[in-house]
Write a structure and sequence with these properties.
The protein has about 180 residues and is mostly helical. It contains 6 helices and 3 strands; from the N terminus they run αββααβααα.
């Protein structure tokens, strides 16, 4: 149900982005980069013009030099026609945000469900009591011996094996600590 809702919202957002696919003023532009000229500093000019009008005379307004220097100034300017698809950008961002949102929902789901499915481990004692009870502590039953039917059981088995390894490492460290003391 949640996946269907997410897909419906994604479809709606993509449909809205595509329906607004007419060329907006941000989709095309002519960009002229003019370097410093005599006592003028360099400047970048942007204007929405057609590709055939993408030159210094149509883009650079107001012209910073007097009439006789316009040609020399325009020869120094480099004008490029740029076109981008805002629809593609919108769709990409929507998909990215949807994936991130789905991962956040999944993380919240796991945080809620994990305490419900986790069984208390009777063999783990607090760290400060470990030196007194390390020989009398019962070992956890091995979940790896029986065939794991579900992914959850396999993950839980791997988690139990990891916990046993950590406990063994702690025991070894404390034994060495006692021996060195």
């Amino acid at each position: 149900m949640a996946a269907g809702t997410v897909l419906a919202v994604l479809y709606l957002l993509v449909a809205l982005a595509v329906s607004d696919s007419s060329k907006s003023s941000e989709d095309v532009r002519c960009k002229c980069i003019c370097p410093p000229y005599r006592n003028l500093t360099g400047h970048i000019y942007n204007k929405n013009v057609s590709q055939k009008d993408c030159n210094c005379l149509h883009v650079v307004e107001p012209m910073p030099v007097p009439g006789r220097d316009v040609e020399a100034y325009c020869l120094l300017c480099e004008c490029k026609y740029e076109e981008r698809s805002t629809t593609t950008i919108k769709v990409t961002i929507i998909i990215y945000l949807t994936v991130v949102g789905a991962l956040l929902v999944y993380m919240a789901f796991l945080m809620i469900v994990d305490p419900l499915i986790r069984k208390p481990d009777s063999y783990i004692q607090p760290l400060h009591n470990e030196e007194d009870t390390e020989d009398t502590r019962p070992f956890a039953p091995s979940h790896g011996q029986a065939r794991a039917n579900t992914v959850l059981e396999r993950v839980e088995g791997a988690q139990q094996r990891w916990k046993r390894q950590v406990q063994e490492q702690r025991k070894t460290v404390f034994d060495r600590h006692k021996m060195l003391s």
